[in-house]
Design a protein that fits this description.
Layout lengths: L5 H11 L5 E5 L12 E2 L9 E2 L3 E4 L10 E7 L13 E5 L11 E4 L3 E4 L2 E4 L9 E2 L10 E3 L7 H9 L4 E5 L3 E7 L3 E2 L10 E2 L2 H9 L5 E8 L3 H13 L4 E5 L10 H7 L3 E4 L4 E2 L5 E5 L2 E6 L3 H19 L8 E4 L11 E11 L2 E6 L8 H5 L3 E5 L11 E6 L4
Helix pairs in contact: 1-6, 3-6
């Protein structure tokens, strides 16, 4: 079987992702969620002309050098002045207070001198000075946030200002993780001579958590047909939206994951990708469940999750594809093979801007080099290698 190009694999996966659907959540629970329905303003903001300064509300035409105005009251936020400002009158006003009827400008307190009930001013304003007009922030019915926006602090603040007690956000998928292999033990174990620590699920869970409703870690399944089948049957019984296995994806003599997935009704779309690290990637479906079989090598597992699972989950939520950065190289790259290389790299900041520094380590089990990387350089097939300063395509590892 020939190796599937990366773009074809992504397209095949995205074709299986369901259309996003929405659910209403309280505003206080919406942080980090992706907006599904647009947010429209239910009122004008500010809902009245408001003072932008602490000072005095005046009629601009009344300000004549050498003449004082008589102070007739006070307006503050939450307690406006109920009367009318007439000729020769002023009202002490504070930031956010409604502009009193009759007034058309505010003079800041630093440009005023009070003498009992009389106030003299050192500047002569134009109408509208230091006044926030009705609806100057947003107007009733205005579209404030579009679907596909991730809700962070600033978006939640404007939603609150728009008096939205809840927002309609994209439903998130439920994920299930399963590591496989006789050699694996959980962190904290005393290792035998043929064992290693299982790290994949501990990296995948936080990598994918921002997109998921829940992530159920089903631990480790040994390379035993009965145990692996029982584990997978139990996982499918919970009806997760996405199942992710690690290990057993290369279909070698002891790699039985694909066989059992097929026995359990998984329809396989592909299982080998023209890339490194991560060639033995499986993808298929079982009913409405997406099934990813990632390689067991830790770097391969994380890179394939970034390259294929994250795009699927972004599409599930109605997010646009993750932006690609084109950065100059801070070090040269060597010639590539016939497989696309997702090369580890560091993000370095220089006097001329950010650059990508390739990490020479390419072993698919070398976790410390991946931990040192902020980027993946996407090196095309048969690339001859690039010099310092050449622009290369990069993916930010920890970007949402």
């Amino acid at each position: 079987m020939s190796l599937l190009p990366v773009e074809d694999a992504i397209a095949a996966i995205l074709a299986r992702v369901p259309v996003p659907t929405g659910e209403a959540v309280p505003l206080a629970a919406a942080a980090g969620r992706v907006l599904f329905a647009p947010l429209r303003a239910g009122h004008d903001q500010p809902p009245f002309p408001a003072s932008a300064m602490d000072g005095y509300a005046v009629r601009a035409a009344d300000i004549v050098p050498g003449h004082a105005l008589r102070r007739i009251g006070m307006a503050q936020a939450g307690a406006g002045f109920a009367g009318q400002v007439g000729a020769g009158e002023t009202v002490r006003i504070f930031t956010g207070a409604p502009l009193p009827a009759g007034a058309d400008a505010v003079i800041m307190q630093e440009e005023a001198v009070a003498e009992g009930d009389l106030v003299r001013f050192s500047s002569q304003p134009q109408p509208g000075r230091s006044v926030r007009p009705l609806g100057s922030d947003f107007a009733r019915g205005q579209r404030l946030l579009d679907p596909g926006v991730r809700l962070t602090a600033m978006q939640l603040a404007v939603a609150a200002a728009a008096n939205a007690p809840e927002l309609v956000v994209a439903r998130r998928p439920r994920l299930a993780l399963l590591a496989t292999g006789d050699e694996l033990e959980l962190p904290g174990a005393v290792l035998g001579p043929d064992q290693i620590i299982a790290s994949n699920s501990f990296g995948l869970a936080p990598l994918l958590a921002p997109y998921a409703e829940t992530i159920a870690d089903h631990g480790i399944a040994r390379d035993d047909r009965a145990q692996l089948r029982a584990k997978l049957e139990a996982i499918f019984a919970t009806q997760p939206d996405v199942v992710i296995t690690t290990g057993g994806a290369s279909v070698g003599e002891h790699d039985i994951v694909q066989e059992i997935l097929l026995e359990l009704g998984v329809t396989l779309d592909f299982w080998r990708i023209n890339m490194r690290p991560g060639k033995p990637l499986m993808f298929g479906t079982r009913g409405k469940t997406l099934v990813f079989g990632l390689p067991g090598n830790p770097v391969s597992a994380m890179v394939t999750a970034i390259a294929f699972i994250k795009p699927a989950l972004r599409a599930w939520l109605g997010l646009a594809p993750q932006p690609v950065w084109h950065l100059p190289l801070a070090g040269p790259t060597t010639a590539n093979t016939a497989r696309r290389h997702f090369m580890r790299a560091q993000l370095v900041h220089t006097a001329t801007g950010p650059m990508a520094l390739p990490i020479s380590q390419t072993d698919s089990g070398h976790t410390s080099s991946l931990a040192a990387a902020e980027l993946l350089i996407v090196q095309p097939e048969h690339d001859p290698g690039q010099p310092v300063g050449a622009l290369v395509e990069t993916v930010v590892i920890d970007a949402f």
